C-alpha cells in the first residue's frame, strides 16, 4: 500500500546524517524527549510540508531526482532526505515525512572513487558527498540472474559526486564504472534490506592488453 506519512517531534531521523546514514535499529523512532513519535497520515499534511521546502507537487521519484542533482551550494540547510529501499524519508528536525517509492523500482546511488570514500548505507540526498564531482563516466549495471544489463549508460556524476539510477526491485548483480582509463566494480542488491548508497566502488588503472604495448 502506498503511503504518505508525517510525524511530529524531533525526528529520529536526525539520522546521524552528518554525512550519510547507517541502517536504523529495529523499533519505532523516538524523539529527544523519549516519547515515541505519533504518526498522522494525510495527504494535506504532507503537501504542506513539501510546500514549505519548495518541493510542492513532486512525487517520490521527482523528489529524489531533483535533490540528488541539486548543486551542493544550493542544498537546503534545514532538510535531510534519506533514500530507503521502499521509501524516501524527509525531515526538517521537527517534522518527518515518508513517501513510498514505486513498487517495482529501487534507487541506487553510486559514488565511484579513486582515493577517498566514506561509509554509507542509506543515501542522504542533502548531505552525502563523493570524491568525483561532475566527472564523465561509463556505467553498466548487470542483473546476475539473467546476465543482462539493466543500465548501460555514458553519463556525468552529479555535483555531489554521485550518480543515481532507478533499477528493478529485488535483483542483485554487479555495478561497473569506468572513467579516465580507470575501471572498478562492486556487487549490489535492490532487495528490501539492501543499501541504497554504494561507496565501495574504487576505480583503478586499467591494465594494458598485450596488443596495446
Walk me through this protein's architecture.
- The chain is 9% helix and 35% strand.
- It is mainly β and 213 residues long.
- The chain has a six-stranded antiparallel β-sheet, with helices on one face.
- It is globular, with a radius of gyration of 18 Å.
Question: How helix-rich are the residues, as a percent range?
Answer: under 10%
Reading the helices and strands in chain order gives EEHHEEEEEEEEEEEE
The number of distinct β-strands equals 14
Q: What's the overall average pLDDT, rounded?
A: 83
**What shape does the CA trace take?**
globular
How many helices?
A: 2
**Low-pLDDT residue intervals, each spanning 5 or more residues:** 1-19, 24-41
Major sheet size, sense and barrel closure: 6 strands, antiparallel
Beta content: 25-35%
Break the fold down into its secondary structure elements and pairings:
Elements: E1 4-8, E2 39-41, H1 43-52, H2 60-69, E3 80-83, E4 87-91, E5 95-100, E6 105-110, E7 123-124, E8 136-143, E9 148-156, E10 163-168, E11 172-179, E12 182-189, E13 197-198, E14 204-205
Parallel strand pairs: 6-13
Antiparallel strand pairs: 1-2, 1-5, 3-4, 3-7, 4-5, 6-10, 8-9, 8-11, 11-12, 12-14
Amino acid at each position: 500500500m502506498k503511503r504518505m506519512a508525517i510525524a511530529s517531534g524531533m525526528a529520529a531521523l536526525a539520522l546521524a546524517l552528518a554525512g550519510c546514514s547507517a541502517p536504523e535499529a529495529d523499533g519505532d523512532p523516538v524523539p529527544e524527549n523519549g516519547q515515541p513519535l505519533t504518526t498522522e497520515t494525510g495527504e494535506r499534511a504532507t503537501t504542506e510540508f513539501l510546500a514549505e521546502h519548495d518541493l510542492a507537487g513532486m512525487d517520490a521519484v521527482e523528489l529524489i531526482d531533483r535533490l540528488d542533482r541539486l548543486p551542493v551550494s544550493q542544498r537546503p540547510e534545514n532538510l535531510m532526505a534519506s533514500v530507503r529501499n521502499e521509501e524516501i524519508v524527509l525531515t526538517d528536525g521537527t517534522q518527518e515525512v515518508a513517501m513510498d517509492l514505486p513498487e517495482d523500482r529501487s534507487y541506487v546511488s553510486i559514488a565511484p572513487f579513486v582515493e577517498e570514500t566514506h561509509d554509507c548505507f542509506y543515501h542522504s540526498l542533502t548531505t552525502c558527498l563523493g570524491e568525483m564531482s561532475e566527472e564523465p563516466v561509463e556505467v553498466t549495471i548487470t542483473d546476475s540472474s539473467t546476465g543482462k544489463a539493466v543500465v548501460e549508460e555514458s553519463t556525468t556524476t552529479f555535483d555531489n559526486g554521485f550518480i543515481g539510477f532507478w533499477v528493478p526491485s529485488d535483483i542483485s548483480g554487479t555495478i561497473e564504472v569506468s572513467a579516465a582509463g580507470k575501471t572498478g566494480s562492486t556487487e549490489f542488491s535492490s532487495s528490501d534490506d539492501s543499501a541504497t548508497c554504494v561507496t565501495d566502488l574504487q576505480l583503478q588503472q586499467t591494465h594494458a592488453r598485450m596488443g596495446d604495448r
